[in-house]
Write a structure and sequence with these properties.
Blueprint lengths: L17 E5 L4 E6 L36 E6 H4 L8 H8 L3 H11 L9 E6 L4 H7 L4 H15 L3 E4 L1 H21 L9 E2 L4 H11 L13 H16 L7 E7 L3 H7 L15 E4 H9 L33 H14 L9 E2 L5 E8 L2 E10 L1 H13 L6 E5 L21 H12 L10 H9 L7 H7 L18
Helix pairs in contact: 4-5, 4-13, 6-8, 6-11
Length: 481
């Protein structure tokens, strides 16, 4: 039968698969696998699907974490896309859980050292405000508490992904300037659309195809850059093969789980998958809340062994990594010699659609926009398709109000956005000091030592990607989100 929202076939209700996986030590992770994951509700009024429930097997082995944790996750609410999830992807997604994380931890405790792995956890900066709000700590203390807890479980290294975002932003800046120079009526290089949000990229690849795919920025997302840093640079520094490292990313949304599975984008120079497992902030917090382990606050590690703990900082974004702000400043300086200190955002259709312009002598030189949530995404795609697109650059994010509102950390039990928590997180995030990626000496060192220069062929190979374009659903652009 056909899905009411698209032309793809979906499986009849009695044939839909339901996957139930037991966490080690009585943790439960439920994946209600629905082949069609269409979002048909508005951004601000989405509810979770019918709850799935299950009881712990009576003979289940008890371990450190003996309390039952019902983490109900539904693909209809996780995926920020309009496409269908294949059976193979459903199986792979079922492995993106705490079960796999604990499996590696447990193997490391056994005598067979041949099966031991070096456990590395990388934490997204948008996850830290959640832990700070959740446990009533400063961002720095929350970072140290999280690091201490992970190491008490058996994790060897805990990194911050901000350095990976540095690379992603810097490469996006260079790409925009190149596109601007090459843009013409015959060769439409602009607008450039950001590609750091996996929900948006998946939607573009699976449902939109042309004319959107050529406009996606080719710079890899921070998560995928971090995978290369850990499995390539860090592995060589530690004289380890990539297969000996199990890399976990703590992120604010479930779409990052799909991003970890994406072929091409997810692999490193040596062919290893950059990210082995993604756990949301909420999943980690649940484990922390139900643990009785003694935890000692610990400083986050750095990729450079001789560098001591660095302060927590962020990029200049309202609730994201700030691609718009950083690319705008860079483009203004490189293309027009204009130094932009303060960026003024002008709200347009709604609170999730903002515009920034650079004007000189009454002429608009640059027009950038930020479009968050699928209602705004639909509008920009319709304009692009009709050839009435006024913007040079758009920062696109699937979640309304940005990454802090990721579904893995900012929801109530009934599936709505926890507005009070989100507001608290936004206040915490805005208080974190901002540092532009150009000012990082460590990033410049990595360009030279790891990538053989800022313009080397290795930069293109490691930090950029290509996109797969499926036949777009012809009706998808007419859906009222």
């Amino acid at each position: 039968m056909k899905c009411e929202h698209c032309t793809r076939k979906v499986i009849e209700p009695h044939k839909r698969k339901r996957i139930s996986l037991s966490f080690p030590s009585s943790y439960f992770f439920f994946f209600f696998f629905k082949e069609c994951s269409k979002k048909s509700k508005t951004d601000d009024q989405e509810n979770v699907s019918n709850d799935a429930s299950s009881a712990a097997p009576e003979n289940e082995e008890k371990g450190e974490f003996h309390k039952l944790a019902d983490a109900k996750i539904f693909l209809s609410d996780c995926l920020a896309c309009d496409s269908c999830v294949t059976v193979e992807e459903g199986v792979q997604l079922s492995q993106q859980s705490a079960k796999d994380f604990f499996r590696v931890l447990n193997l490391n405790k056994k005598c067979d050292t041949s099966k031991h792995r070096v456990l590395v956890v990388s934490v997204c900066p948008q996850s830290l405000p959640y832990f700070a709000a959740k446990f009533n700590l400063s961002v720095t203390d929350a970072s140290r508490r999280l690091c201490g807890f992970l190491k008490s479980l058996g994790v060897h290294y805990v990194f911050d992904t901000t350095i990976a975002a540095d690379f992603s932003i810097l490469e996006s800046q260079k790409e925009f300037v190149r596109r601007y120079h090459q843009h013409s009526e015959e060769k439409r290089e602009l607008p450039m659309l950001t590609s750091a949000c996996p929900g948006w990229v998946r939607y573009a690849e699976r449902m939109l195809g042309h004319p959107v795919i050529p406009h996606l920025c080719t710079a890899k997302s921070p998560q995928q850059v971090m995978g290369s840093l850990v499995k390539d640079y860090f592995a060589r520094q530690q004289n380890l093969s990539p297969e000996k490292i199990f890399h976990v990313v703590v992120a604010p949304c479930y779409d990052k789980k799909l991003e970890a599975l994406r072929e091409g984008l997810s692999t490193t120079l040596n062919g290893a998958r950059g990210t082995d497992c993604v756990l949301t902030s909420g999943e980690i917090a649940q484990i922390m809340e139900q643990s009785d382990l003694s935890v000692k606050d610990t400083a986050v590690d750095t990729l450079f062994g001789d560098v001591k703990e660095v302060a927590v900082w962020r990029h200049d974004g309202m609730s994201s990594d700030g691609y718009l702000a950083h690319v705008f400043r860079h483009a203004a300086k490189e293309l027009f010699g204009e130094h932009v200190e303060e960026i003024t955002y002008r709200a347009l259709r709604n609170k999730d659609f903002h515009e920034v312009t650079l004007e000189k002598n009454g002429e608009v030189l640059l027009r950038f926009a930020a479009a968050y949530g699928f209602r705004n995404i639909q509008n920009i795609i319709l304009k692009l398709k009709k050839g009435k697109f006024p913007y040079h650059f758009v920062e696109v994010l699937a979640c309304p109000r940005g990454c802090l509102n990721g579904r893995g950390q900012a929801q109530t039990e009934d599936g709505h956005t926890d507005r009070a928590l989100l507001q608290q997180m936004e206040g915490i995030y805005s208080g974190i000091p901002v540092r532009p990626p150009e000012s990082s000496a460590l990033v410049q060192e990595l360009y030279q030592e790891w990538l053989e220069g800022t313009e080397s062929p290795k930069v293109q190979e490691v930090l950029h990607t290509t996109y797969q374009s499926s036949e777009p659903c012809t009706d998808s652009l007419d859906i009222k989100w």
